[in-house]
Amino acid sequence: MQKIIFGLAGEAASGKGTASKYLQEKYGARAYRFSDFLRATLDVWHLETNRENLAKLSLIMRQGFGEDVFSRALAEEISKSGSEVFVFDGIRRASDIDYLKDMEGFKFVYVETSLEKRYERIIKRGENSDDKTKTFEQFKKDHELETEREITSLKEIADVVIENNSTLEELQKKIDELVK
To answer: pLDDT digits over 28-75, tens only?
Structure first.
């Protein structure tokens, strides 16, 4: 069977992780997040895993090893795996997909959600150390970080745009349609 590879992009708390989890649970997708490499590195150095540190490390990695450093690493993971379905969560710039877009079976999906809905979700989930105490103004300011600036422009080059302002069930239906 041909491999199915979904690359997910969208602003913070748009539903990329939820889509990824659903693909894993229902379709047995092998999942990766672009930030996995960054989080592991921060952990090794006992540095706080917050958006600012993730952004700094991402910049250092891309400057030192090339803009496509993360997609090259993920492509290598695919080539080594016997899995058939893959999902990459957290694409942040066009260079992140340059290496992946030519892979057979690759679909680039943009998940779009309102600012207010995303803020509600980020406070609730508390994934990073500073999320639960973040004000709405701080959340809006996070969008000015280098790693966040290009995300919205990715909507223009996506193969598919999924609007995610509704229920979990609606998101799951849209994902099922996409897999078909």
So the answer is: 999 998 889 899 999 999 999 988 899 899 999 999 999 999 989 888
Burial group, residue 127, by CB count within 10 angstroms (0-12, 13-18, 19+):
middle
| CA atoms of 28 and 44, how far apart (whole Å) | 29
Domains in the chain, CATH or no CATH each = 4-179 (3.40.50.300)
* CA distance linking residue 120 with residue 131, whole number of Å: 11
**pLDDT tens per residue across span 80-109:** 988 999 999 989 889 888 888 889 999 999
3-state helix, strand, coil in the chain (%, to 5): 50, 15, 35
Residue 1 pLDDT grade (very low, low, confident, very high; cuts 50, 70, 90): low
- Contact between 157 and 5 (Cβ < 8 Å): no
Q: What is the 3-state secondary structure (H, E, C) of 135-177?
A: CHHHHHHHCCCCCCCCHHHHHHHCCEEEECCCCHHHHHHHHHH
